Amino acid sequence: MKRIATIVSMVIICGFMSTELNAQKVKSFSGLVTFSIKYEGDIDPMRLANAPKERIYTIAGNNTKYTVSGQGFVQHVVNIGDSSQNLMIIDHPMQKLVIKKDREDFEEDFEYVDIKVVPSDETKTICGYACKRYDIVVKDLEKESEIKVICYTTEEIGVDENINFETPGLKGYPLYQEQHIGEIKIITEAVKVKKKKIKPAEFLIPSGFEIISYDDYMEAVRASQNSGGGE
User: Fold this and answer.
1) pLDDT for 9-68, tens place per residue?
2) Which of 44, 69, 42, 43 minimizes the C-alpha distance to 56?
3) Which residues make Cβ contacts (< 8 Å) with residue 108, sequence separation at least 6?
């Protein structure tokens, strides 16, 4: 009888612990984030006229997606955070193509760059979300060039650091980015955050698309450049 009472007590205690742990879990964000994009510096007027001024991200957990519309084609850029995977989905009348970049491809890229992420005590509120500043320097070890980025991120969007697998060490989802590329400055800032249920299918590869690896894609790019097609 004592043994039964002990087991019942353990079940009750475990039940309370489970309830408490579930209460502590942060519900992952699901919805749309609209960004404005501004440019400063010496930029060719034609390029500036064609540069995007707005971008809308679809976010669910650690997955993100945005769409770029070109002349006669649409390109979706999907990041699957938990598997460190990037999908470039190109929907063109002549070809439906997916360029798949896996974790191993990113790890190889990281061998040629030095990424430093420095947290700051500076904070600001963007679209009602408390954000913390990070200063990032990305050095290209081959070209000996660097890009400086100021980020303000919120930990209320995204489950964990996997949402930033392309920038190891960055915590929280960026609602503000200020990129310094030479004399040009690009400012991307969230202007609207809308919570919304997002279906998992948003981040899947559509049927009927040809899938190629990132290595095969880069090999085709190099071949095109060597033959003069990139000029």
Assistant:
1) 433 334 433 434 343 445 689 999 999 999 999 899 999 998 999 999 999 999 999 999
2) 69
3) none
Q: What own/partner pairs with CB < 8 Å and gap ≥ 24 does 40-44 have?
A: 40/184, 40/185, 40/186, 40/187, 41/182, 41/183, 41/184, 41/185, 42/183, 42/184, 43/184
55: tokens are 């971008």
Domain annotation for the chain: domains and CATH numbers: 30-217 (2.50.20)
Distance CA 166, CA 168 (A): 6
- pTM for this prediction: 0.84
Q: Please classify residue 47 by burial: count the beta carbons closer than 10 Å to its beta carbon, then call 0-12 exposed, 13-18 middle and 19+ buried.
A: exposed
Cβ contacts of residue 231 below 8 Å, gap of 6+? none
Q: What is the separation, in whole angstroms, between the first and last Cα of the chain?
A: 85
| Distance separating alpha carbons of residues 74 and 188, to the nearest angstrom | 21
Q: DSSP character for 183? A: T
